[in-house]
């Protein structure tokens, strides 16, 4: 978990964005333990690479200039976050 947080901060700073400390637990509680992308509950005991594992999703991806701040992150299933990829949600079309 430490290395994931460090990596997020490093990528955001490298892209010229802001970064602030937060934890997965903090974001999960704020979001009511539900995936922001599909709306289903997220089992907090699941671990990546399990499809329903909890992950941090950046609303505006860091690779597109988004910040690594609490205001720009949300809880998402590993599967939902992987499908979204580095795109803005809900900018996905049926062809993607």
Q: Could you explain the architecture of this structure?
A:
- The protein is of the alpha+beta class and 96 residues long.
- Helix content is 28%, strand content 10%.
- It has helices at 2-14, 24-30, 78-84, and strands spanning 54-58, 73-77.
- A two-stranded antiparallel ribbon has the order 1-2.
- The longest helix has 13 residues, at 2-14.
| CATH class bucket | Mainly Alpha
Shape-level CATH architecture: Orthogonal Bundle
Supply Rg. Answer: 13 Å
Number of strands: 2
Shape category: globular
Unreliable stretches covering 5 or more consecutive residues: 91-96
User: How much helix is in the residues?
Assistant: 25-40%
CATH fold node name: DNA Binding (I), subunit A
Largest sheet: 2 strands, antiparallel
Counting DSSP H or I runs of 4 or more residues, the number of helices is 3
Class from secondary-structure proportions: alpha+beta
Give the neighbour order of strands across the main sheet: 1-2
Termini separation comes to: 30 Å
Strand content: 5-15%
Overall mean pLDDT stands at 85
Order of helices and strands: HHEEH
Question: How many domain modules?
Answer: 1
Task: Record the SSE blueprint.
Blueprint: H1 2-14, H2 24-30, E1 54-58, E2 73-77, H3 78-84
Antiparallel strand pairs: 1-2
